[in-house]
């Protein structure tokens, strides 16, 4: 069984650390065909420790989830692109696996991120398309026909709605679950997806 390593790139802990809920749903659609593991950058004190985990796991595919573009602080603003570039460099040094970007932050700027991080593919929108992309790669079919899939050659993104199933897989014994319970004592629960409105200032019509 091939291995998929999913990495939450989020390192923000203020005002509170946010559990990577989306990766639970990605695991839910991957687990029947792939061995999966979640690594969370909030758990690691250094990129070197992440590199060790990546190297030891020997994944066939790596999914990098980008939640935040910046810290949304108008007084002391900080963008995270350079942090993600350092993270990708560590991943590349420790693995030859295909690197696939995803997440809400990535979905806001999918073309810009895939080029800036020199990733192999991207999944814009719902992460449930991840196994659809992997199936196309393994069957050597055209991935560009899949809504939301981005390549380095893409010039636009088809933000098609996900009409398939949603299956969250929650592991109470995983390292990242224990981390969030010890750090803040709470986890996430998604009660709905998407929004019927199309407000010009809001990114949710693209994200979900």
What does this structure look like?
The structure is a single chain. With 208 residues, the chain is α/β, with parallel strands linked by helices. It has a single domain, classed as Response regulator (Rossmann fold), CATH 3.40.50. Helices cover 34% and strands 13% of the residues. A six-stranded mixed β-sheet has the order 2-1-3-4-5-6, with helices on both faces. Helix 2 runs parallel beside helix 3 (81-94). It is globular, with a radius of gyration of 16 Å.
Give a topology summary.
Layout: E1 3-8, H1 21-30, E2 35-40, H2 47-57, E3 61-65, H3 81-94, E4 98-102, H4 104-108, H5 110-116, E5 121-123, H6 130-139, E6 149-150, H7 175-183, H8 204-207
Helix pairs in contact: 2-3
What's the alpha carbon Rg, rounded to whole Å?
A: 16 Å
Low-confidence stretches: none
CATH class, named Alpha Beta
Instruction: Spell out the helices and strands N to C.
Output: EHEHEHEHHEHEHH
Q: First CA to last CA: what distance?
A: 30 Å
CATH architecture tag: 3-Layer(aba) Sandwich
Shape: globular
Sheet with the most strands: spatial strand order: 2-1-3-4-5-6
- Coarse structural class: alpha/beta
Mean pLDDT: 92
| Tally of separate helices | 8
How many domains comprise the coordinates?
1
What's the CATH topology label?
Rossmann fold
Q: Give a short account of the largest sheet.
A: 6 strands, mixed
CATH level-4 homologous superfamily: Response regulator
Helicity level: 25-40%
Number of strands: 6
Strand content: 5-15%
